[in-house]
Design goal:
Helix 3 (about 80-95) runs parallel beside helix 5 (about 140-155), helix 6 crosses helix 7 and helix 9 (about 240-255) runs antiparallel to helix 10. Helix content is about 30%, strand content about 20%. The termini are far apart. It is built from 13 helices and 20 strands. The relative contact order is 0.07. The longest helix has 19 residues, at about 140-155. The chain folds into 3 domains: about 1-135 and about 160-180, no CATH class; about 235-345; about 360-570. The protein has helices at about 5-10, 40-55, 80-95, 105-120, 140-155, 165-180, 190-205, 210-220, 240-255, 260-270, 300-310, 315-325, 335-340, and strands at about 130, 135-140, 355-360, 365-370, 375-380, 385-390, 395-405, 410, 415-420, 420-435, 460-475, 475-485, 490-495, 500-505, 505-510, 515, 525, 530-535, 555-565, 565-570. Strands 3, 4, 5, 6, 7, 8, 13, 15, 16 and 19 form a 10-stranded mixed sheet that branches.
């Protein structure tokens, strides 16, 4: 029977289950759809996990007669350690959860046992696996898989579900081999150290082999990479900061190192100031692949809940409740934390409000954050999109400008200077011309590459400077923009908006879709119930793709164009 035929046949009884749990009966296992001691939110996660499992099974070879039995293809048609792990992790959560449609399902146990066999074939002799998009024989990516699978192993081994050794025996073989790699292998990035430590801690809970702790202590001796702002080295607010929090908790618990929790507390407290009015998290200062993506706080739910309960912290509890309102469906991937630790099922402490009115400079991250109730702004150093402005539904994703100054006039400020109620961004450039190379440096063959420009005298040096001073005004912000130095340099300033809204007060470009000009007065962008007003306009030319400037983003963008010198106060409200 082929994969899709099997799924269709077994989905005729219940929409949520491609298998029929009731077709199997076994002594001592009572099917219960609701555990009375389990809170509704955990039951909700279990049922969301069922939906994830159903989707993965559609990509799984479930025919025992097939040579590919247990294989799971990813989105590009490959069978990888990560695609197979997605099935194993998700299925283990379901198999031991009474509210799940897959609870104790023996056919699923066969499929997962086969998938573990596939995983073993993908494991190298040194115990590592590959992240086929980039890393091969990768200790850190092995660590990621171990930290996902070890809790599932423990849950299944401790359950009353029959025939679990079909999974646990080969899975322990995989985990034990991986542990040998984790005890000796290297890493690439700062967070990899803590992922490896966490994986070692998870293995230590199963088998307290001294080598696991010894290796973790070697990494931990480097000390946790948390700056005085409360941010980790990679500044990856959506992905890796939350990951570091989770794995440090796992390490603290697995090796009885409660001092590690202080780092988590500091990052969680800092993250209060990274929240937009609609619950999204600020990502523009990230040094990793989550830079400028749209994301919420779901990855922080476990750390906030764990420490809200342990510390009786009402603000951490408030953060949990915010996540429950804005992104709870995305918490499903962390279900194993809540299945293994029923202490997290208890009621959260009462909430106290999260900060919603503040102005803070995070020096190490090159980020200033200002929030006033239902709107906020981020100011960024080392970023071409140096300012953004959020209301709940209307979003100005960024402001940029570039000048045609020797092909290098994209405005980027290396630092944020804090003044009296202001934040200041600056950039200065030079554009020299070169004189003949001194005769003593001339090559004999006229080869240009042998004539270093640094040895040529300079002349006609052109200079360029730009400055933006950002201050608060009623309902928003003023940006005092000054561009000068060399005169008559064309520039284009961009207001880049999140798609989905409508403009007024602007004129569409005659040939470029999504490009508009604000020629005079104020423009407005409306999305949902929110409107952002911006301007005044300025328009002296149609050139938007300035040489040396960054390419257009593809989002709806309004341009102000002009020539230097330029001095204007722009308002965003």
């Amino acid at each position: 029977m082929k994969r899709r035929e099997f799924l269709i046949t077994n989905s005729k009884v219940a929409v949520m289950a491609p298998f029929i749990p009731s077709m199997f009966s076994y002594e001592g296992l009572e099917r219960k759809r609701d555990n009375p001691t389990m809170p509704d939110w955990v039951v909700q996660l279990i049922r969301q996990n069922d939906q994830s499992l159903k989707s993965i099974l559609e990509r799984t070879e479930a025919d025992p007669s097939s040579p590919q039995f247990g294989s799971v293809v990813d989105g590009v048609g490959m069978v990888t350690a990560h695609s197979v792990t997605s099935l194993i992790k998700t299925a283990l959560n379901a198999l031991i959860s009474e509210p799940s449609a897959y609870f104790g399902d023996q056919r699923l146990i066969e499929v997962v046992g086969a998938a573990v066999g596939v995983l073993l074939k993908l494991q190298h002799a040194d115990g590592t696996i590959d992240l086929v998009t980039t890393n091969f024989h990768s200790t850190p990516d092995t660590g990621f898989i171990v930290k996902w699978l070890a809790p599932g192993y423990r849950l299944l081994a401790a359950s009353d579900v029959p025939n679990t050794d079909r999974i646990t025996k080969p899975l322990w073989t995989f985990l034990e081999r991986a542990g040998e790699a984790l005890k000796v292998g290297g890493i690439h990035t700062p967070n990899h150290r803590w992922v490896v430590c966490s994986a070692l801690a998870e293995l230590h809970k199963i088998s307290p082999e001294p080598g696991y702790r010894k290796r973790a202590e070697q990494w931990l001796a480097e000390r946790i990479d948390l700056d005085s702002d409360g941010q980790y080295n990679e500044r990856s607010s959506y992905i890796y900061s939350s990951l570091s929090n989770r794995v440090l908790i796992s390490t603290a618990r697995g090796f009885d190192m409660p001092e590690l929790l202080d780092y988590v507390r500091k990052n969680l407290a800092m993250t209060f100031y990274y929240i937009h009015p609609n619950g999204e998290i600020v990502t523009e200062a990230s040094g990793r692949q989550d830079n400028s993506i749209v994301g919420f706080l779901e990855n922080y739910y476990y750390p906030y809940r764990y420490l809200a309960i342990q510390d009786k912290n009402p603000q951490f509890a408030a953060a949990c409740r915010l996540i429950e309102q804005t992104a709870f469906s995305k918490v499903t991937g962390f279900l194993h934390y809540f299945l293994e630790d029923p202490s997290l099922w208890q009621e959260l402490p009462g909430s106290t409000p999260l900060p919603v009115s503040y102005s803070k400079l995070f020096t190490h991250s090159g980020l200033a954050r200002i929030r006033r109730g239902n709107y906020d702004a981020s100011i960024l150093a080392n970023s071409a999109a140096f300012f953004n402005f959020h209301k709940k539904e209307a979003v100005l994703q960024g402001i940029r400008f570039a000048s045609a100054f020797f092909g290098k006039g994209q405005f980027v400020s290396e630092h944020i200077e804090e003044g009296a109620g202001t934040f200041i961004l600056k950039s200065s450039l030079e554009g020299p011309y070169s004189q003949p190379l001194p005769v003593e440096h001339l090559p004999n063959d006229g080869d240009w590459e042998k004539m270093p420009r640094a040895l040529r005298p300079q002349s006609e040096v052109q200079r360029y400077h730009a400055q933006v001073v950002i201050s608060e005004v009623d309902g928003g912000f003023a940006l005092d923009v000054e561009i000068g130095g060399t005169d008559q340099v064309p520039f284009a300033l961009e207001f880049i908006f999140r798609p989905g809204g409508t403009f007024s007060g602007v004129e569409a470009h005659d040939s470029l879709p999504g490009v508009y000009f604000l020629k005079s007065g104020m423009g407005a962008y409306k999305a949902g119930e929110d409107t952002i007003a911006f301007g005044p306009g300025h328009h002296t030319h149609q050139w938007v793709d300035i040489r040396g400037g960054l390419p257009r983003t593809g989002s709806p963008t309004v341009y102000l164009t002009g020539m230097t010198p330029f001095r204007e106060r722009l308002l965003i409200t």
